Amino acid sequence: MSRGLYNLLKNIIVYGMEFVNFETTNNDCNRRFDTLIRKFLPEMPLSLVYKNIRTGFIRLNDKKTKQETKIKLGDVINIEKRLYNNFSKQNKEINLSDEYEKNKKFIENITIFKNESILILNKPYDFNVQNSENDKNSLDTIIKSIYQKDSLTFLPGAMHRLDKLTTGVLCFSQNLDCARWFSEQISKHFIQKEYFAILEGNLTNKQEWVDYISSDNNKNNHKSRIVESENGKKSVTIIEPLSHGKYKNIDITFAKISIKTGRKHQIRLQCSNKGFPILNDSLYGSKISKQKNDLEQKLYLHCFHLGFPDNDFDIPSNIIAKIPNSFEKALKKCLIEITNQVYNV
């Protein structure tokens, strides 16, 4: 029988009290006992959590323990059954409804790589990674809804960001150790990120752009902006033209872009600032977006490659995501043909 918050193991009787019991896994280790209990009993006031730990209605390995005790692998948490029923999110079996099967199939169809440590997707166009005020059907929500829980507290989450309108390689954690490792590699810029973009304008040579970027604090304006160095974060982008074409008599460049930093809208902003806005990107100065056009996407930016350093999680050194059909159609409209050679890294 599987273990975890949503998988009730057994009931026992201790001193006339009936308990429900949960065994900890690697993802739960080194957390304080009271912190873990808060995950089980989110409706219980903290003062009442402490009281029930003191009085033995909440136990560890069938014994009273202190609230600051650190959890070890294989520890069993015992919670008095009435407390659990009253203050927990009720125990539910995995939903095998049509909606569950639909979500599972959707994720399977966009999965590039998966193991016990990481899930890597080819993110579709016009899909939020996480919930927003206007859109609750995010990839994060869908993945959590089908996740096979093997931990008391761990849930998968996106480990980096892609804009709603950007497609390509997107990684979700499958355990806590990999999530921590990935975060460290990102912060040290050890994970290589490469994009394809369709740009307006005729970019003729490989360039490196260094700017300082600040996000606008106005909630009604989600743009970033280039500022003086003391007011922003350093942003480094390397861009290389691959081929050229035309769309509506405007020069078009198909480019490969590598970023050494990951600022909000970094590629979109820098391309626009240098005179090469992304095709149809109205937020950052596209000329074509102001005309009637037959393009399927509002911008054309695709993360086609993540390069990983050596690791203990069996993650391949290179992950490649093919461009979506709508992106390829736009290239053809721009009279640009591509081959699989462009994916060589």
What does this structure look like?
The protein is about 20% helix and about 25% strand. The chain is an alpha+beta fold. It has 2 domains: about 10-85, RNA-binding S4 domain (Structural Genomics Hypothetical 15.5 Kd Protein In mrcA-pckA Intergenic Region, Chain A, Roll), CATH 3.10.290; about 180-345, 2-Layer Sandwich (Pseudouridine synthase), CATH 3.30.2350. A hairpin with a 3-residue loop joins β5 (about 110-115) and β6 (about 120-125). The longest helix is centred in the first third of the chain and has 13 residues, at about 100-110. It is elongated.
Question: How is the CATH topology of the largest domain named?
Answer: Pseudouridine synthase
Q: Major sheet, described briefly?
A: 10 strands, mixed
Shape: elongated
**Number of helical regions:** 8
Radius of gyration: 25 Å
CATH superfamily of the largest domain: Pseudouridine synthase
